[in-house]
Amino acid sequence: MVFSSAVFLFVFLPAVFLLDRLLPGIRAKNALLLIASLIFYAFGQPVYLPLLLLSVLLNYVCGRMAAGKHARLGVALAVIGGIGMLAVFKYADFLIGSLNSAFGLALPLTGIALPIGISFFTFQGLSYVIDVYRDRTVVSRSFVKVLLYIAYFPQLIAGPIVKYHDIEKEIDDRRTTPQETAHGIRRFICGLSKKLLLSNAMGRMADAVFTLPAGEIGMFAAWMGAICYTLQIYFDFSGYSDMAIGMGRMFGFHFQENFNYPYTATTIKEFWRRWHISLSTWFRDYLYVPLGGNRKGRGRTWVNRFLVFFATGLWHGASWNFVLWGLWHGTFSVLEDSGVLPVQRLRGRLAGRIYTLLVVVLGFTLFRADTLAQAGAMFFAMFTGVGLNWAGTAAVCALLTPSFLLCLLVSLLLSAPVAKRLEPKREWITLAGSLVLLVLCMLDLSAGTFNPFIYFRF
Fold it and tell me: For the whole model, what pTM was predicted?
């Protein structure tokens, strides 16, 4: 991560929180959060701090243009500049590698390191400029406010993608109460626990399976790896969102929910209304609707959906695996809409959930695979590997410890809204539970064990 997890949890966050409480006015608090955000980003990648500042400056200037006489030019420059930076830093080597493979070329790769969080702060800046173009009253005359909005450390590198008008008033005037602070701390601990105690446990198993040679992956190992990765990515992504939402509450900001139990969906369309809501909403508002949405006939609607899902896959990473993952979801979205898949009969039923989970698990298998060949080997093993490849099965069985099985059970339960039904009504029970989870997280961090950061790809 940008900070090591221990430094962030034990030093950085408490220090910023205490200073925020000691400072008297909103300007001083904003200055503190801005300085803390820049330090946070620079700590891991100081060489790319100027890139972040340049991106914000570009969006600030283009936002001012979008609110004036040169509105279209401002939007065009923001789109060209933002997408251009993504093209150079994220997709250049992917494009060169694809050209080399397709035409037998030997063009040298750039070797440019990916700036952490570039997809998030680029999309956040673009949403600001486009919103100003649509409603000029949204524009900010203060560069510092725009910089704080885009670079605010709780959601800078892992989302959720926040729209300026959602927190504009809180930048200028926000209040923190003991109740709000306590709620934020609990939400942060919840997210931290998802990441450290559940996602990482599932990730160990997933990595063990996906690093097996293709010839050693049997049906049991393949399904165990696919299911564990599906759980890993959910608790990783939703865990970081919970931490961002919780930290936002601690400092007086209210971010919208980003995950709403997506694995309970009964259609793929419903899944995307529940999964990474800020990202799917961004593509809906700033790509799907401008393309025409569903207003220009069924055929054009399907084309627009494929374009959106293509972009969604490519946003997640510079690899054909991600592109095909996006198109995989786009295909089922179109099939549902066309009536080829009778999802109306399945909606709200167990069969609908099974169908959706099957599509999602297979999709995430493609998402996780390092190569298309590995994805193919996984799919082959998942449906034909009965009674074969005992070496891989034995390797997986060796990891089925009581602690892993407990984490797997808890992960499966918490993928559904079970926690809401079991939420204690007494405040002291909630507090005690949060303290227990925090201690477990601290023990996990102090052990210095497996702790991957999936967002490095984004």
Answer: 0.93
